[in-house]
Amino acid sequence: MYRSSKLQTRQSIPYGDGAPSTEPNNGMRNRSLFDQQNEEVTSALGQKISALKSLTIDIGNEVRSQNRMLGEMDSELDTSSGFLGNAMSRLKKLQRANGGSITWKLLGFAFLVFIVIVLIIKFK
């Protein structure tokens, strides 16, 4: 009785393609198959990791490039704000020298230009 149940157990163990085997080196064949599958999966994983590494390097390069451009824009804006500050201070000096009449002249000119633009757009 013991012997027949042991024989049935050996015959019902699948290997590789799922067929039962009674070969004595069945374990070696399974191990070899698992090792081969493990190598394939490891290779695929290595390729994916390489792709991710390349993508990460590209993202890092792009971030450095964007930071450099932002730094350049910041320095250009600082220069522009300096020019604008100088122009405003000269305008204030001019306003004080003329007693404020220049402000009314500038506002009147801006209003006149606005009216002319509205009329041009309206009659086109």
From TrEMBL:
GO terms under cellular component: Golgi membrane
Keywords: Golgi apparatus, Membrane, Protein transport, Transmembrane, Transmembrane helix, Transport
Localization, UniProt: Endomembrane system; Golgi apparatus membrane
Main location: membrane
Transmembrane segments: 102-121
CDD domains referenced in this protein's UniProt entry, alphabetically: SNARE_Bet1
InterPro entries: BET1_SNARE, T_SNARE_dom
Ranges of biased composition (kind: Polar residues): 1-12, 22-32
Region: Disordered, residue numbers: 1-32
Entry membrane topology: Single-pass type IV membrane protein
Matching SMART domains: t_SNARE
GO BP annotations listed: protein transport
All copies of domain T-SNARE coiled-coil homology, residue ranges: 32-94
Protein's name in the database: t-SNARE coiled-coil homology domain-containing protein
Lineage of origin: Eukaryota, Metazoa, Ecdysozoa, Tardigrada, Eutardigrada
Encoding gene (name): RvY_19188-1
